[in-house]
Design goal:
The relative contact order is 0.13. By secondary structure, this protein is α/β, with parallel strands linked by helices. The N and C termini lie far apart (52 Å). Helix content is 26%, strand content 27%. The chain has a ten-stranded mixed β-sheet. This is Adenine deaminase. Its cofactor is Mn(2+). It is an enzyme of class 3 (hydrolase). It catalyses: adenine + H2O + H(+) = hypoxanthine + NH4(+).
């Protein structure tokens, strides 16, 4: 596949690289005396010189050989003595919108941590505004050096017939995107039930991707490791980031899938299977690292792929193996290893200099041979992006929320109790349980029961105005008093409201309707925290540090309201994700994500 993400195509500059390697012309950059992490041989090569020209590596001085013959009067020389040189880090699966910022601002946050490439699936924006919004996201991306490789969203909506989104994407649309110069794969095929049922659009998207010689990235959280998994892989889906146990990881590897080992802000999966993977001795060539979803405070306070590397090493993974998962393995999977993924002659000079292979503190980040970050600071900047109007006016409820809006009738009951279906939340995981709980009934309405940690949930279609629908449910596991609302509610991103009383729920919903979307925490008639996200109800127009502080204030509000789980807004945001087991609530009602049938609130 032709790589359009490097400064110079190899066929245009190969002659110059030959000259530099042989000392016939000087290099533009020479990094000297580095401990080179060779991801091609799983070695650390001490005292290595790296000569760069045209944005690519021209020569490696290994052993007794040096790059002195590549140095001219105008060559920039960097002394990397004592530092470790690695290929630039790649995130094999990321939804940038989860950080509540655009791609350019995302780059400013992650490049100083050694990230040089991301494989991003913009299906959050896709579900709100369709492909026009996806195009706008990547116009923003062109303004920064970070290599933003796109995997166009395959599931808009995520699962047909169970929710209402702001847009739809068809197989014909995917065929068009395969001609875009920033597309390298199909975004995660979450509609695995559609694949297994041979649904026309799902199979059509896969066919169009394979016909364009691209890979199809996947999403298979089903416990089935036999016929369904075999069929899913046989359809052409070749990777998956939805593994919750070592057995799942191993089953997918044995069928030839690339497994994206995930450690995001809320989905903390590495501790659940990485130690067993290390102990098993299984070959990890098909293992990649990914974050999937990062909140802004994670990026600002902890880092990006460097954070995942630290965690992996702490869990027992050899650091060079960990680096392979974030570099060459990733490039090989996406068909880009001829240009990226290793520090070897002819490859793009995406290079990071680290203090060590434990803290992974990046001292310098180079992309195409240009120094773009140093000592934790990006050396590039961009003005705020001018988002098109259709992306900044996406709140269309068609009514003004009041406490009466949140009244849930209890047919045939006036007072007492009633058994209702509820979503049981597991902190730190995307999986929910399908449970039945008892709630109070008063004046013919179902109420929340804070004493037993049962909250009321409502989902409103925010895309279609007065024609939209809404549904009610219940949830356990959050333990809050008050109400929380957000328009970050995967994947339709409708208005999601949760609370223990109707008055606070109404105020939370009204607050977001007025500001264009975002996240809000309310208790006893007071707004405790608000994160305004006016771009599609998903992204801010402010700096990542500002957004991170607002999210931190929201987190403090959650704690004040009684919640102790990690990244609770992100956990709340997947309560509508109708493709992950077991039970979800969309604007159309409860969805059983094992049978993919609608279920009643009253069992």
């Amino acid at each position: 596949m032709r790589n359009r993400f490097c400064k110079s195509p190899l066929w245009e500059c190969s002659e110059e690289l030959i000259q530099v390697a042989q000392g016939e012309r000087p290099a533009e950059l020479v990094i000297r005396h580095a401990n080179l992490v060779s991801v091609t041989t799983h070695e650390i090569l001490p005292d290595t010189d790296i000569a760069v020209s045209c944005g690519r590596v021209a020569y490696l001085g290994l052993g007794e050989h040096t790059a002195e013959h590549c140095i001219g009067p105008d060559t920039k020389v960097v002394d990397a003595r004592g530092l470790y040189a690695t290929p630039g880090l790649m995130d094999s699966h990321i939804h940038v919108e989860s950080a509540m910022i655009g791609v350019a601002e995302y780059a400013r946050a992650v490049v100083p941590h050694g990230t040089t490439g991301i494989f991003c699936d913009p299906h959050e924006v896709g579900n709100v505004t369709g492909l026009p919004g996806v195009r706008a996201m990547f116009e923003d991306a062109r303004r920064v050096p970070l290599k933003a490789m796109m995997t166009p969203p395959s599931c808009v909506p995520a699962v047909h017939g169970v929710e209402d989104t702001g847009a739809s994407i068809t197989a014909e649309d995917i065929a068009d995107t395969m001609a875009w110069d920033n597309v390298v794969a199909l975004g995660e095929m979450m509609n695995f039930p559609g694949v297994l049922a041979r649904e026309g659009n799902a199979l059509g998207e896969i066919r169009e991707t394979l016909a364009a010689d691209r890979v199809v990235t996947g999403h298979f959280p089903s416990p089935d490791r036999d016929r369904a998994l075999n069929a899913y892989v046989a359809a052409g889906v070749s990777s998956c980031h939805e593994s919750g146990s070592f057995d799942e990881v191993l089953a997918k590897l044995r069928l030839g899938m690339y497994v994206q080992l995930r450690q995001g802000s809320a989905w903390l999966n590495l501790p659940g299977y990485l130690p067993q993977l290390v102990a098993s001795g299984v070959d990890t060539r098909l293992c990649l690292l990914c974050s999937d979803d990062n909140h802004p405070h994670t990026l600002v306070d902890e880092g990006h792929m460097d954070r995942i590397l630290r965690t992996a090493v702490e869990l027992g993974l050899d650091p060079v193996t960990a680096l392979q998962m974030a570099t060459i393995n990733c490039a090989q999977y996406f068909g880009l290893a001829h240009d990226m993924g290793s520090v070897t002659p002819g490859k793009c000079a995406d290079i990071v200099l680290y203090d060590d292979l434990e803290s992974f503190r990046a001292r310098m980040t180079f992309i195409d041979g240009e120094l773009v970050a140093e000592d934790g600071r990006a050396l590039f900047d961009v003005a705020p992006y001018e988002w098109p109007d259709f992306m900044t006016h996406t709140m269309n409820l068609g009514f003004e929320p009041t406490p009466e809006t949140f009244r849930v009738p209890a047919p045939g009951r006036s007072d007492g109790t009633a058994r209702v279906r509820a979503m049981g939340i597991e902190p730190g995981d995307t999986i929910t349980r399908n449970i039945v709980v008892e709630v109070p009934v008063r004046d013919g309405a179902l109420l929340a029961d804070r004493e037993h940690d049962v909250l009321k949930v409502a989902v409103f279609d925010r895309h279609h105005g007065s024609a939209g629908t809404h549904a009610f449910g219940f949830v356990t596991g959050f333990g809050i008093h008050g109400a929380l609302a957000q328009t970050v509610s995967h994947d339709a991103h409708n208005l999601l409201v949760m609370g223990d009383n109707d008055e606070d729920m109404a105020l939370a919903a009204k607050t977001l309707a007025e500001c264009g979307g975002g996240e809000v925490a309310v208790a006893d008639g007071q707004v405790l925290a608000l994160v305004e996200l006016p771009v599609c109800g998903l992204m801010s127009t402010e700096r990542v540090e500002v957004v991170a502080e607002k999210v931190a204030a929201a987190r403090r509000a959650w704690e004040q309201m009684g919640c102790s789980m990690p990244s609770p807004f992100m956990t709340m945001g997947v309560m509508s994700l109708a493709c992950v087991p077991e039970l979800r609530l969309t604007n159309r009602g409860y969805v059983n994500c094992l049978t993919f049938e609608m279920e009643d609130l009253l069992p």
